């Protein structure tokens, strides 16, 4: 089990290089997103975490403890975990190349760390897991990142 510090370091320093090992034409092992759409999706997750999107909580209050417990565990997301905020068919990729998509993701990752570095007590809403602080977002983003890395064949060593 990694610490939050190790997970934050992974997100900041290792996620983009690992995603860079995925060919943009690599078929997904599950799901409908292609590799470019997945990288865009990860950029969006970091934008949500940093508060660029004001989110409404969708999970019923009585289910939040169970959701939070899962989020904070080392248990991975299942393949094809549904996300009611995503369309049935993925939106076209924002970028034509993996390099451009990764540059955008790198910008959003740095923005996330800068926002919480400047405002350590900041909390933002995740529509499924609740109102999260920096450490909780790091936990969720790390879990989410590995879900999508595995989707495209990158294994956790």
Summary keywords:
2 strands, 157 residues, globular
Molecular structure report:
- The protein has 157 residues and is mainly alpha-helical.
- It has one domain (4-22, 34-78, 91-151).
- The protein has five helices and two strands, in the order ααααββα.
- It has helices at residues 4-19, 35-50, 64-72, 98-118, 134-151; strands at 124-126, 130-132.
- A two-stranded antiparallel sheet has the order 1-2.
- A hairpin with a 3-residue loop joins strand 1 (124-126) and strand 2 (130-132).
- Helix 1 runs antiparallel to helix 4 (98-118).
- The longest helix is centred in the last third of the chain and has 21 residues, at 98-118.
- The chain is globular and about 40 Å long.
